[in-house]
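user: Kindly work through both lines:
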Amino acid sequence: MNLSRRSYLGLSAAVLSGCVARGGEPAGATEPTATSEPPTPAPTPTPRFSYDDPSVDAAGDPLAVAFNSRERFRDVGWLVDDFEDERLWGTFAGRYAVEEDVVYCGSQSLRLDATPADERVWIYRTFDGGIDLSDADLSLAVNLVTPDTEGITVRLAAPDYDNTLLLGRHVWAAGWQRLDLGPRRVTGSPDLSNVTEISIQLYTGGGTTARFYVDSLRAKPRADAGKVMITFDDNTRSQYDTAYPILESHGFPGVVGVIPWTVGSSHRIPRSGMDEMVDSGWDMVSHPQRSDSFRDLSPADQRASIRESKAWLVENGFERGADFIIWPYGRYDESALDAASDYHYLGFVTVGGPTGPVSDPQIVGRTDGDDVKKAKQALDFAAQYNQLAVLMYHDVTGKGRSISPAAFAETMDYVDELGLDVVTASSYWDSIRDSV
């Protein structure tokens, strides 16, 4: 990131507590009194960064990252289909139409629609002689209009319907996004060197409408090995008391999504514990969670929360993780993605699953680690297809819906057994940032 801790000293007092008046003087300052000594020159005031000013942009902001990762990674890999020739596509259900006004790239996209009478909208394209995707991962540009959130499924027939690989991603309505498609289900023994059909679908179950746009289906080289990232939301106490010792016994680092305004509460990771974890290789990343999700905040409030949370991390010595965000409640919209791209390189959502190298770094999917069976399946896919599996946890107590310490240890043992490389947000980013 651009901002060193040395250059940032003093910013927290001015920004986080709001103790600097608009004229640049400390609130409540008194007039200087006469003295026999010559007056000491006043220090240059720390620049004020107004979190509630929607006119503030990232230009020249010391909290901003060096570049927009979404723009840099948006066209990684090679083109499989640009949807410029709609005649190549047929329909199994629903309908599609050419759209020239809503495009990701090129001159047109395809608009897919399902009516209440349709259970799904589903299009397909066949490839005479098959195409080789045995050493590649797919990504698809999608713009969901309705409903607000849904899962997009891509099926590879390799070479027929008895041997298929089902890929998928969950998405929120937030403008154009590039979905990194990861494995969800395997039928038979698919031969990915001979993919004869690719289909794209959204399932509604009927009784409602759906509309989304697709564009720019791309393939990218598969990673050399599978990886796993172990993430924790909300900096709860059990992450330090229970999860940390278990991961230490394996030599694994983790990633904590910190809600800055909760630090110091008795049921959160103690401040000294956060330092200890970071010294062991963990990342403390931004998790600016409040009572409302980012889909319910104004663009100004979104930006304010993102900047304030990052400022706290930097001021408190957690620069290494400050360039990354875990989306509160896993939700975002188009303006939130824009703001996060100014201040973070990677963002992590709630629903996703294992994927190959990222193409849209602000919406990296995660798997619910509380469901041990689902977590192990994600780890299996990561090992088999050289994917990145990001596991998500909150409490590690066994109370309510949270995972028990024994089940958590069982999952970590399984990571060890598979020999997956355990990465953090910062180490993963370091490994890919210069790859395109």
In short: The domain at 227-432 is CATH 3.20.20.370 (TIM Barrel). Confidence is low (pLDDT under 50) at residues 1-55. The first strand starts at residue 78 and ends at 81. The two ends are 18 Å apart (CA to CA).
